[in-house]
Amino acid sequence: MSEPKRVELNLLGQTLTVRTEASPEYVRSLAAYLEDRVAALRRGGVKDPTAALALAALDITDELFRARDDRVRQDGDMRARLGALLTLLEKVTPREPTRS
Questions:
Q1: pLDDT per residue over 34-73, tens digit each?
Q2: Which residue from 16, 57, 58, 96 has the least number of CB within 10 angstroms?
Q3: How far apart are CA 39 and CA 34, in angstroms?
């Protein structure tokens, strides 16, 4: 693991310093994504920047939770398909005779 670095961000007019093992470019891209989401809410009529930030955070969290749920559902579907395939293979594969 790499040593945590300090990354300075300017987010919604405030300077923040984040300690992270992620690359500075990646952390800045996260901040830019958040600022874009806030800007979209502001264009949509949300006047208060703090409210826009909170709504953007809720929206992004909703996306994360839905993506996790989709992943769990896909994993379950894959397990079911693999189980069905295994059952089919067992039916069509001749068994070896038992030796006495």
A1: 999 999 999 999 999 999 999 999 999 999 999 998 888 8
A2: 96
A3: 9
The angle at the Cα of 28, spanning 23 to 29, to the nearest 5 degrees, equals 100
pLDDT, tens digit (0-9, with 9 covering 90-100), for 17-39 = 999 999 999 999 999 999 999 99
**C-alpha span between 81 and 84 (Å, rounded):** 5
Phi-psi region of 13 (alpha: psi -120 to 50; beta: other; left: phi over 0): left
Which residue in 50, 48, 53, 49 sits closest to 31, CA to CA? 53
Non-local (6+) Cβ contacts of 59 within 8 A are 37
What's the full length of the chain, in residues?
100
Run of H or E including 89? helix 49-92
Encode 37-54: b = buried (16+ Cβ within 10 Å), e = exposed.
Answer: bbeebbeeebeeeeebbe
Residues 58, 64, 69, 75, Cα dihedral to 10°: 180
